[in-house]
Amino acid sequence: AVDKIRLIPQDFFAELCEQIIQHLNHKVPGVNTAELCQRIQTSGVDINVGDLAKIANTLSFLFSTAAKNNLSTEELVTTLSSGVSTLPKHAVQVIRHVWNEQGKAIAVSEDAGNMATVGQFVDMKWKLGVAMSSDTCRSLKYPYVTVTLIVADPSGQITDKSFEMTIPQFKNFFRQFKEMASVLETV
User: Fold this and answer.
1) In whole numbers, what is the pLDDT of the chain averaged over residues?
2) Whole-angstrom Cα distance, residue 9 to residue 46?
3) Cα–Cα distances in Å, from 53 out to 27, 44, 143?
4) Residue limits of CATH 3.10.450 in the chain
5) CA 123 from chain center: how many Å?
6) In the structure, what pLDDT confidence band is assigned to residue 60 with cuts at 50, 70 and 90?
7) What would the DSSP string read from start to end of 74-127?
8) What is residue 121's predicted lDDT score, i.e. its pLDDT?
9) Average pLDDT over every residue of 2-29
10) Separation of alpha carbons 32 and 22, rounded Å
């Protein structure tokens, strides 16, 4: 991860660190590494989404561990500098600045270790389509609904989960949402 961090320009690295801190403070549901990776690649840096996700997970672990241990900025920087594979100077400077400005705000819950590791719903998109024909069938005229759920996994990575439903399946899906809404109104 250290070799890949060297490739990331300081402004993008700072943005990644700030998004992670915001995620740890429950201000945003996750870090959209795919979108950030696209922007980094557009700037001319050769990095893939998987590598950026690993860096984000490493930084998330770093910040959450520092918060759990109530480390000061200097203690964190000293710990980072004493590692076997040291971070580049620009990365340490960014981590120092972000931790100094926003790190103390990370809420360390006593229940954090007991929380279920489930994702968080961010958004949902849907579209109605009709399959007109296929290789084996000339006239399908088969309606379907494609649903894309945007979720943030426990580490904060935002991903899309897509699936298709027939109209009867969609009606059942819709009925279940109505049931959930009615139960939530009683709470």
Assistant:
1) 82
2) 11
3) 19, 18, 37
4) 120-185
5) 13
6) confident
7) HHHHHHHHTSSSPPPHHHHHHHHHHHHHHGGG----TTGGGS----EEEEEEEE
8) 81
9) 86
10) 12
Structure-token match 């309606």, residue found = 143
| Measured CA angle at 62 (ends 56, 68), to 5 deg | 135
At 128, give phi and psi (nearest 5°): -100, 135
List beta partners, residue 26: none
Report whether pLDDT(26) > 70: yes
More confident residue, 33 or 137: 33
- Output the CA angle 73-74-80, nearest 5 degrees: 95
Nearest to 125 by CA among 151, 103, 105, 100: 151
Q: Is the pLDDT of residue 80 over 50?
A: yes
Pairing of strands 120-131, 158-166: unpaired
The angle subtended at Cα 148 by Cα 143 and Cα 149, nearest 5°, is 140
- CATH class as words, domain 120-185: alpha beta
Alpha helices in the chain (DSSP H): 2-7, 10-24, 33-42, 49-68, 73-81, 89-102, 167-186
Averaged over 3-30, what is the pLDDT?
A: 86
C-alpha 152, offset from chain centre: 5
